[in-house]
Amino acid sequence: MTIGTKFLLARYADCAFWLGRYMERAESLARILDVNLHFSRDSRGSQNWRSIVQLNADEERFNKAYDVASYANVVHFYALDRDNPTSIISAIRSAKENARSLRPMISTEMWSHLNVFNNLTNALTPDDLKPSELSRVCAFIKEECQTHTGITEGTFFRDQSWFFYLIGRQVERADQTTRLLDIKYHLLLPADQRVGSPVDVSQWNALLRSVAGYHAFRRVHPRGMSPKQVATFLLFNMSFPRSIALCLSEIDGHLHHLKTGFGLRAGNISMELLDEARAALAGHNQDSVVQFGLHEFSDYLQRQLIAITAAVRQEFCGVVPDSDAA
């Protein structure tokens, strides 16, 4: 890959892509754990911690390590379990390792913050995950991820690596939103006779808070909250940063910039897959998505995002993705 006489190594592009994904993943997991602690309760006051395992498609891995999906087991699995590649501590460690590979490309401020963040996370213990402490830990992780975002925005040189970083971040955001929406509809939705009850509304409230979207949703819908309104907002709203439509649009813009702004010839397959996903989204509205089947549509979008990831890595980076790069 070239820009004038400057070359970007393919491995740098891949590392930038995964740096963006892993940091977004860590923030998302922290938010989901915190929201589940405070907002996701059924009519008896119980919380469904297994839904987080199902959200991340980790049931097989989780069941090998733990007997029951209790608060303690699920929170440890997603916060501090070093053997779980989808845990927060693993995501931050992987982000640091990708940043290490990018050391010639990133600012001293970016590297220093990630290094300190990784060390602080490694110092956390099971005592820090007690129910009385979990919100504090999750707030710390979210704030550090947001600090990383601010430092990166202010110091990352705008060459090709910047755009691969952004593509990775947007792919992860879109993937997390589709999974949350799918799980809510098919695993957390109350029985028909309770739809619209205070319990149901509180769980849709929790879903919006899981994507930091509650206040944004209220800008569009000041009163009331229905499953269809929430699904429409998360799928189609072009002003909400974590909506599927906006994430796909931004990925499209970044890929176009790589091809036109930097003269890269690769990316045709990636853009075709992205065009298919955007066309599928444009071909639906709030009623047709429900009629088509939200689970089927969410599953389609997730598979497209997996295919786009594979295409980007193969076309630009020469990497054939394997099962541990997820």
Describe the fold and architecture.
- The chain has 326 residues and is mostly helical.
- The protein has one domain (2-317).
- Helix content is 70%, strand content 1%.
- It has helices at residues 10-38, 50-55, 59-65, 71-79, 88-101, 108-122, 131-155, 160-188, 198-210, 214-220, 227-236, 244-260, 268-282, 286-292, 294-317; strands at residues 2-3, 6-7.
- Helix 1 packs antiparallel against helix 5.
Averaged pLDDT, please?
88
Sketch the topology as an H/E string, one letter per element: EEHHHHHHHHHHHHHHH
Which stretches are low in confidence, meaning pLDDT under 50 for 5 or more residues running?
1-5
Query: Which word captures the global form?
Result: globular
**Number of E strands:** 2
Radius of gyration: 20 Å
Portion in helices: 55-70%
Please list the strands of the largest sheet in the order they lie side by side. Answer: 1-2
- The tally of helices reads 15
Structural class: mainly alpha
Strand content: under 5%
For the termini, the CA-CA separation is 25 Å
Number of domain units:
1
The biggest sheet amounts to: 2 strands, antiparallel
Brief account:
This protein is mostly helical and 326 residues long. Helices cover 70% and strands 1% of the residues. Strand 1 and strand 2 form a beta hairpin.
Key features?
two-stranded antiparallel ribbon; 1% strand; mainly alpha; 15 helices; disordered N terminus
Give the topology.
Elements: E1 2-3, E2 6-7, H1 10-38, H2 50-55, H3 59-65, H4 71-79, H5 88-101, H6 108-122, H7 131-155, H8 160-188, H9 198-210, H10 214-220, H11 227-236, H12 244-260, H13 268-282, H14 286-292, H15 294-317
Antiparallel strand pairs: 1-2
Helix pairs in contact: 1-5, 1-7, 1-8, 1-9, 5-6, 6-7, 8-9, 8-11, 8-12, 8-15, 12-13, 13-15
